[in-house]
Design goal:
alpha/beta; 11% strand; 2 domains; 211 residues; five-stranded parallel β-sheet; 8 helices
Length: 211
């Protein structure tokens, strides 16, 4: 990747980081994906006392079925238990195949709980879209978004698939506007610098995750 495209990827990376102030909430919700690090960070936050209850949500997408054949939520839950989160604190939502379903199915799963504040734990570049989706579909709760603190370089090294990460970063950025227009999420600001970086990456061929 040339220097300009790498800089553009950094622009998108920082755009998705909401930098919410950490606080204790009623539940931590780990959004399923290809990134098992989400489950690891949920475990870290649980042990830090950020929430007493954990929900992992996700069935499979075409990009994850090979890694997590029994479903994202199942594998994430197993990973969290291996990191010391007690099984009694974990709930699994195993049907969701997109972020909207992650939110709505988890909301339904927790209907009998008094949930007023939630922590959404996701891939670093999914934070803004997860927030916008939750505010639209579960407006009665306060939302804190969280992701493992790391640089783009560190994340690329962890995933070891630059093409996949950049394509998903581009796709998540495009969805900010596209999903708000379709009524799936609340609108989010999209600065001109972000629009320009997004377009250059699309023009460079990072189009595999566009809707």
């Amino acid at each position: 990747m040339d220097e300009q495209l790498r800089a553009d990827a950094e622009v998108l990376w920082h755009y998705h980081h909401l930098r919410h102030e950490p606080r204790r909430t009623d539940v931590g919700i780990g959004l399923g994906s290809h990134d098992l690090g989400v489950a690891g960070y949920v475990a870290e936050l649980y042990h830090a006392g950020r929430f007493p209850l954990v929900v992992f949500t996700g069935a499979n997408a075409p990009t994850t079925v090979g890694m997590f054949p029994r479903g994202e939520a199942v594998h994430f839950g197993e990973h969290a238990r291996a990191l010391g989160v007690p099984a009694t604190a974990i709930r699994l939502e195993t049907r969701a195949t997109n972020t909207g379903e992650n939110i709505t199915f988890t909301r339904d799963l927790l209907r009998d709980h008094d949930i007023r504040e939630v922590t959404l734990v996701s891939r670093p570049y999914q934070q803004r879209r997860a927030y916008a989706t939750c505010r639209k579909l579960w407006p009665e709760v306060d939302v804190v978004c969280a992701a493992k603190p790391q640089t783009l370089d560190e994340y690329l090294h962890t995933i070891a698939d630059d093409d996949r990460v950049i394509n998903m970063l581009v796709g998540d950025t495009q969805r900010i506007t596209a999903y708000a227009e379709r009524g799936f999420a609340i609108p989010q600001p999209l600065p001109a610098t972000v629009r320009a970086a997004l377009q250059r990456l699309i023009d460079a061929g990072f189009t595999k995750r566009l809707v």
